[in-house]
Design goal:
- The strands form 2 sheets. A 4-stranded parallel sheet has the order 3-4-5-6, sandwiched between helices.
- It has one domain: NAD(P)-binding Rossmann-like Domain (Rossmann fold, 3-Layer(aba) Sandwich).
- It is an alpha/beta fold and 233 residues long.
- The protein has 7 helices and 6 strands.
- Bound molecules: nicotinamide-adenine-dinucleotide (NAD).
- The site of nicotinamide-adenine-dinucleotide (NAD) has 21 residues, from helix 4.
């Protein structure tokens, strides 16, 4: 594995790294070529890098909109087109994009970020359709709130960071944040030969955030605040 990132200091020990900024096409092409050289080819491309942003549609400047879309959407475009010649040489090529719960559900105060992830979702489908005949599968993971620097940034920006953390945890039906490892396992599955019939798919790794409506139910029953006609004996 080779980690292409603008900040290679943070990578775990032992991981091969190539420094490159996804907003710079030349750096991306160079980085992908270097990765192919180090690995002897490329079978799997994981488009994971991304940046967050807060704000409603009226709150962000044109520059902020352009920056988020440049990294989150154009970064995938640049890395994918640079990797395509190498992926074509592989007998089991796969691309996995990191999308988000924000590609599916409206989230307060995230207009720019959500727009970028909606685009990643559409781009994933488009790429899956375009390359299926060449045997290149394209899928995405849709994480809920993952305990990373990005989520911690939102928590620390809250007026009350303890309440901010609780809110982030309770957004998942499981009552906790998703771990980065859980997302990595889902990526590995989609990239692996175990998933050879899966393309154009979105795997939720969101603790039930998107599909489940359980928040408050058990507490409401225990405190007697739940309509008796909804409680099944
Ligand atoms: N943390 C969450 O709750 C969450 C939820 C859903 C989806 N995601 C997505 O998961 C992915 C990873 O996010 P994270 O939470 O690990 O964030 P993070 O901020 O912890 O890590 C993002 C990584 O992307 C790199 N990066 C950013 N801009 C770059 C650029 N221009 N060129 C090269 N590298 C760049 C950073 O250096 C960093 O290593 C992102 O696509 C994010 O949108 C995160």
């Amino acid at each position: 594995m080779v980690n292409l990132d603008r900040d290679t200091e943070q990578a775990p020990a032992g991981v091969l790294c190539v420094r490159g900024d996804l907003t710079d096409d030349a750096q991306v092409r160079e980085g992908i070529a270097r990765a192919a050289e180090l690995l002897g080819g490329i079978d799997v491309l994981v488009n994971n890098a991304g940046i967050g942003a807060r704000g409603r549609v009226e709150d962000n400047t044109d520059e902020q909109w352009t920056k988020v879309l440049d990294v989150n959407v154009m970064g995938i475009v640049r890395a994918s087109r640079a990797a395509m010649p190498y992926l074509r040489e592989s007998s089991h090529a796969a691309i996995v994009n990191t999308c988000s719960i924000a590609g599916w559900a409206g989230i307060l105060d995230r207009a720019v970020y959500q727009t970028s992830k909606g685009a990643v979702q559409a781009l994933t489908l488009s790429m899956a359709a375009d390359y299926v005949s060449e045997g290149i599968r394209v899928n995405a993971v849709n994480p809920g709130t993952v305990d990373t620097e990005m989520a911690r940034g939102h928590i620390n920006a809250a007026e009350d960071s303890v309440a901010g953390l609780k809110l982030m945890e309770e957004r998942q039906a499981t009552g906790r944040m998703v771990s980065p490892q859980e997302v990595a396992h889902a990526v590995c599955y989609l990239a692996s030969p175990l998933a050879t019939s899966t393309t154009g798919a979105f795997l939720a790794v969101d603790g039930g955030m998107h599909g489940l409506r359980v928040k408050g139910t058990s507490q409401a029953i225990s405190t007697g605040n739940y309509p008796h006609w909804l409680i099944q004996k």
